[in-house]
Amino acid sequence: MKTDSPTEVHVQNVAGHPRETGSLVSDEAALAGLGYKQEFKRAFHPIEVFGLGFSIIGLFPSIASVLVFAIPYGGPIAIVWGWAVCSAFLMFVALALAELGSAAPTSGGLYYWTWMYAPPRWRKVLSWVVGYSNSIGLIGGLASIDWGCAVQLMAAVSIGTNQSFVPTTGQTYAVFVALLVSHGIVASLATSIIARLQGVYIALNVLLCLAIIIALPVATPSEFKNTPSFAFGGFSNFYRWPNGFAFVLSFLAPLWTIGGFDASVHISEEASNARTAVPWALVSAVGIAGLLGWIVNIVIAFCMGTDMESIMSNPIGQPMATILFNSLGRNGTLAVWSIVVVVQYLMGSSILTAASRQVFAFARDQGLPFSGLIYRVNRKTGTPVNAVWAAAFIALLLGLLAFAGPTANSAIFSLAIAGQYIAYTIPILSRFLGGRQWTPGPFSLGRFGLPVAIVAVAWMVFSVTILAFPTAPAPNGQGMNYMVVVIGGWIILCLVYYHIPVHGGACWFNGPLVTIEEAESTGIVRAQDDRDPPDETKEEKKLEGSRM
User: Fold this and answer.
1) Exposed end of the chain (fewer CB within 10 Å): N or C?
2) CATH 3.40.50.2000 corresponds to the domain 12-542
3) pLDDT digits (tens, 9 = 90+) for 395-414
4) How many CB atoms lie within 10 A of CB 240?
5) Which sequence spans correspond to the domains of the chain?
6) In this structure, are residues 161 and 317 in contact, taking their beta carbons and an 8 Å threshold?
7) What's the Cα-to-Cα distance from 183 to each of 224, 396, 446, 509, rounded to whole Å?
């Protein structure tokens, strides 16, 4: 695998053809080669780029949030071996994306790569679909993370009141809204502040995992300690699926946990040495999370007891909190759980940061309704504040699915995965099937690029397929899997919006725009601040009106 840095940057236009060649080694020059002017401060150091992706994974809090999907579909086998299988295949996905991220590091990432490498006939609509899928996938991830945090907070209250408090959906949703608002405030801070916070996020995540790995085996009473044969081979199946298929359905847990790692891509324009830092952040986040998470899951399997049904039905209302309560008691659980909630909270602020940069980039290229409003950089913080609150508002709407029942609520988790995998698959395929020129960056897989891409795409297609299945065979209305409705409806809406006569995206969306040339030729720097934009010609105003 070639990873040495080149001394020359091949500057390309947005169609992927060479435009200029020179010794342009700065991040700003590389971004200019992609057609964009530097608009953010590059305050993220390489370790902080890794920190953003790693903190979004948020190992132990994520495992705690999705244990509810692993226990009914396999129990210990799903917890231990389901994680191992998924982690291995997700590394192929990370490698394929890392190679693209090194070649063209921009906040738009996935939809930009699609435009760059897809066949000319299809690149416009494919870039449109990827832009919307990536946006809804990240925003769905935000909704699922903050919903998980709200549930964890309610579990803490339940533990503190000796299970006398049983939260309603409305109460949990109110906490969810409060979390979203607070995350909007954090994600609106200056880039330098957000970057420095990543060091804290990394430390808290690693320390929490180490605390669980050490403390849980020591503190767990003998009646809840399991034998190796049970921890590595025990099986539970709550929903009448064939055992093998039940195990496959448990993949939702690790798929959601090790997700959103493309976040590093979306801060490419805020990262120093982005062509190297971004790909290595992707690969490192998935690799470290996979290994450390597997160890944590093994510890859980050894210390959870054998009664899976009591874990799922406990009044605490959160399986991982129940396991901790059985092992650590009330006070110990509250101490550990408070850290879990804090780390889960930090996950939300990180993924909103990534989602807002994707929304900002897509609006910069006029891909969203009200793009002119969303595409603004706040002059005080130097961050895309409007994009932050647009993403938070959509996540708030997605959270309303919780009122349709637990199965509909799980669609939020599935949506985060399915939306992202659709957005990951298309640019990876486009690179090899589009017939466009490929100029690798300093991180290159060389001849292994194609086989890695084949495995990555096959895995993602398989994963999205299993995510579409209901909780149990022959479901009723409450047991339906709403992921298909949500993600399918979203794609249909974005395609309808694309094809609407006169006002649809097909009439005005032209893929990535070349903002650097505009700035150099007119002296206008778009998205400079929140002040009124410069006067437009009548024709430009008419075009902007059609986008609304």
Assistant:
1) C
2) no
3) 999 888 888 777 666 767 67
4) 10
5) 12-542
6) no
7) 37, 12, 40, 31
